Queue: 2 jobs
Job 1
Amino acid sequence: MRPFKFSTTADSNEVSKILIANPHARLLGGGTNLLDLMKEDVERPTELVEVGNIDVMKIVSPASATGSIVIPAVEKNARTANDPAIRENFPMLSQAILSGASAQIRNMATNGGNLNQRTRCTYFYDVAMPCNKREPGSGCGAMKGLNRMHAIFGWSDKCVAVHPSDMCVALAALDAVVKVQGANGKQRSIPFTAYHRLPGDQPQKDNTLQPGELITAIEIPKNNFAENSYYLKVRDRASYAFALISVAAAMELKNNKIVRVSIAMGGVAHKPWRASVAEKYLLHKEATEANFKIAAANEMKLAKPLEHNLYKVELGRKALVRALMQAANGGKTI
Amino acid sequence: MTDQKQAADFNEDEKQIIEDMITGDPEDMTIFGVSRRQFLKQLAVITGGFAAAQYIGPDELFAAPSVLVPGTIPINSIENGVNASFNVNGSPVALEVDSRMTLLDSLREKLQLTGTKKGCDHGQCGACTVIIDGNRVLSCLTLTACCQGKNVTTIEGLAKNNQLHPMQTAFIKHDGFQCGYCTPGQICSALALMDEAKKGEASYLTENIREKSLSVQLSDDEIRERMSGNICRCGAYPNIIAAIKEVHSGKEVAQNWQFA
Ligand SMILES: Cc1cc2nc3c(=O)[nH]c(=O)nc-3n(C[C@H](O)[C@H](O)[C@H](O)COP(=O)(O)OP(=O)(O)OC[C@H]3O[C@@H](n4cnc5c(N)ncnc54)[C@H](O)[C@@H]3O)c2cc1C
Ligand code: SF4
Ligand code: FES
Ligand code: FES
């Protein structure tokens, strides 16, 4: 690990100034991703600012009149997943968080850090390998290398990596909003699906955060998905592994008719992937397995698999159907 | 510690290197009471050798220089040194460490609490699990600097008055280990798990996440899922589960093993 200055600056405006003045300064959440990458020499910050002390990060908003819930950026993943209001109103978010990492890591990881965790692409992790995300212009090792874990949607010839978060897949399906604050306290709200980026020509940029901006909170608007939602995660082993494919499926049913539906997939793209083709097909239709199968097939038709991940197309289709079935059947684990 | 008392013993190559860099006989360094290791470390600081951290053991890299060559380095010369005061197993500690130092390295290298193990050092195995303010966490991905004001419990803090903690006793009864390397992490993790279950916390296997109960009775599958952050290379899993089940249920669980 390279030397860095450790700072506990509490004033968010000061923190923004530090981040603008020093492009090599980073916020430190739980450190479960950043410290790992620093030990690998992938991240080389010269200054770390601990988020736990930053004023705006700690504000707990009172329950809003619109029924939305605001979760602070510094709140730990484990606490968010077990928050009674989240379990009751957005059970799919709890499931998604609890499917990720381990109990220890979820106790450490912050919500802000979860959004900004970096890809697990093994070429990104290995500084001896080419990687456009780590070193723009050096090439993409995965494109013609081992790409079993990589994207089937939205990739570019510069990068085929996937975003590794489970929590973010549920947040994308829940139409969450990312609250950020930049220089001079300037605040803005970013719709979750516009927060992360597709790689395009700049795979080094994972998200649309501007220099000096910090995530302060995540807002989840009220919805009627709680009874019919499910987060399904498919992986190489039963637990403590990143998703090969995951699906966050949520719907609102009236007499088994789908009046609102929201579906996002993980493990398939550089950002949580909204399955909008499947959503469009399902809206106003009956919640039946036959309809789910057509919707899933339509969505996966658009996939562009790489050399080693053709399996994700079939797996994705089956995972979509299964997640939708579980959601329609009350979202319980079987 | 012991090398403080040893006379410096340089091999020929080292003598040559040192002579090239400084004037005077390196063996003379002992007149300042500076050991060879200590001296080499300071040399590393002087020559900017900190960037080559991989060539120096963590104890040397992170230990505050206790004895100094007069006039060379000021006393608080750890680059990016930070102070952290916290409790470990109920006793207050105050450390000055390099900002890079993890809690795991502080426990093992500075506080001589070597019960906590370093498996992967990357958050992937759980061997370094300790309990901070009631929550199980990974000490390999926790900076010492972030422990300010916190309460850290390690495997050394579980036995009271020479009495093993019931979880420790259960691991012994059920032979919940083979080499024992993952065991301190397994036991700390299992202890925190008992608490999480009491508070009714959910897991990915919780059947109905919307239903909150105050206390969760854990099935074997639930114990497996909730303990998945602790890897055991010896594969002692069935016995680890038996031990946890016994403590969790408060009822005797039959041993999976017996003497031949
Ligand atoms: C072994 C292992 C297995 C894992 N398995 C899974 C898994 O299955 N599923 C899954 O989803 N995740 C998994 N994870 C990843 C884990 O969820 C993330 O590491 C964690 O969520 C990151 O949160 P943190 O607070 O520790 O972030 P940090 O490591 O502290 O920070 C990550 C990044 O976020 C930035 N950041 C932190 N806070 C803010 C803020 N408020 N505003 C702006 N930027 C910020 C930091 O500067 C840094 O760049 C795993 C991790 C490990 C080590
Ligand atoms: S897929 Fe992206 S992260 Fe992986 S090697 Fe290619 S550029 Fe790097
Ligand atoms: S040593 Fe910390 S998880 Fe392996
Ligand atoms: S007992 Fe050897 S690793 Fe678990």
Note: Confidence is low (pLDDT under 50) at residues 1-7, 23-70 of chain B.
Job 2
Amino acid sequence: MAVERIPSGFLTGLRAGDVTPGTVQVVEVDGRSLCIGLTEDGEWGAIDNVCTHDGGVLGEGELDDNAVECPRHGGRFDLFTGRVLALPPVRPVRAYETRVEGDDVVVEL
Amino acid sequence: MPVEHRVDVLLIGGGVASVRCARTLRRRKFAGSILIVGDEAVLPYNRPPLSKELLRGDVGLELIAAEPASWYERQRVDLLTDAPVASLDPDARLATMGDGSTIRFSQCLLATGAEPRRLTIPGAEHALTLRTFADAEAIRRAAASGRRAVVVGGGFIGVEVAASLAALGVEVTVHELAPALWGGVLGTTLSAWAVGVLNESGITVRLGEAVSSLDDVRADLMVTGVGVTPRVALAEAAGLAVDDGVVADAGRRTSAPGIFAAGDVARVDGRRVEHWHAAREGGEAAALAMLGELLPEPRAPWVYSEFAGHLLDVVGWAPTFDDELPLLGGHVVAYLVGRRVEQLAIIDSAVSVDAARTLVAGSPSPADVERLAS
Ligand SMILES: Cc1cc2nc3c(=O)[nH]c(=O)nc-3n(C[C@H](O)[C@H](O)[C@H](O)COP(=O)(O)OP(=O)(O)OC[C@H]3O[C@@H](n4cnc5c(N)ncnc54)[C@H](O)[C@@H]3O)c2cc1C
Ligand code: FES
């Protein structure tokens, strides 16, 4: 789906109602690969999709509370800040402001 | 007065297999009570960083915890630490603790892991082994004041410990009995590459020589990494089928109804894979089987290792092979049984490890493997 720039950020092409709480997924936005997630508590977050340890695809991992788990070696990042929560990664990933407008999931890049 | 507890699911062993079982039960909305009992004093943690990040730097337990402390409360998973299970009665579905208290359960996972094999040569009592957080701290302390280290055993642990100690500026010699690293099970091509990598880090590697005594070794620190044995005593005494590990099927069901086994202690469909992904996936499979849910397709075994700035992934299963074939400029080694590839070693993620893991399950040809690169 074509990505559209709107005044408050970028449309991700995701419809909020289609996303299962407690999951993450991969979304390409403006040439960037993001891991976008919705927590069980209904909060949206987005981080860079590529694990800083060895390139694991974070959007293919698991989300538990605010922790995104890399499928490659189980490293964990905070969905809202990108901070490392569990080794082996040591460098954080970038985090992006994410919110829902209407039914559209929007990120600020 | 001995206490009697009652739980729906009892997970014996505070390792990754138990924690992943609990995590999966909760993710599948299991509402019953879950109790993890482990004999270590700390929260369950991931062991892979012990020989890597933890030896090289000052890393706290919270960064390697299998789940954060708050998770147990949030997920209503009870945890008893410092609590060895002394015996298990599969018919009565009853576990007895070291202090005499008992736990009745509906279903139980045996995930007691493995313990380092000890050498019996003279002087071996002065050598350290590495299995626990406390072991890693002991090695790091010794390395801080030591200048020379000897590592006996050039397997996964030995190679990683050697590389981490060298990164701390310690002069390291690794002794491996077999003519190639990893006891020779990964062939000579990969071993030759790794020896080169270790040599570049200043590590001396001696292959094909038995160490007969550690008494006269001039070193400030000796570490042995000569393999592990599964902790099957509890299962054996309980009368479960044991054959180099607790015998289990794909659903991690043992010979006793209601008792499951996963991780390093389990021999699943004839294979004992003593690695992190196997323990994680084993705990998850046991949870699904406990719930009577469909199991995922079994995937090829996957081992990873990290040393001297390199990542190594081994996918597939070829305990013995007829030939080893370097592919893709030597970044991938294919292990052939007949003309089919049954195992792949991948250096520095030269190809997608996940794709390779899927491919190798179908016994591909070397040409199929080369196509992974495109
Ligand atoms: C230093 C090190 C580095 C490693 N690196 C890698 C790696 O890079 N890649 C990889 O794939 N794998 C690696 N591994 C292997 C991986 O960590 C193991 O496969 C994994 O820990 C197995 O998990 P488990 O839950 O089966 O057992 P364990 O982690 O061993 O946990 C079992 C727990 O049960 C406890 N227990 C035993 N008996 C009882 C009892 N009767 N009552 C109560 N508790 C009991 C034990 O004390 C232990 O705490 C490494 C292992 C070590 C030690
Ligand atoms: S690549 Fe993500 S944890 Fe290793």
Note: Chain A touches chain B at residues 22, 54-55, 64-65, 67, 71-74, 84-88, 90 (CB under 8 Å).
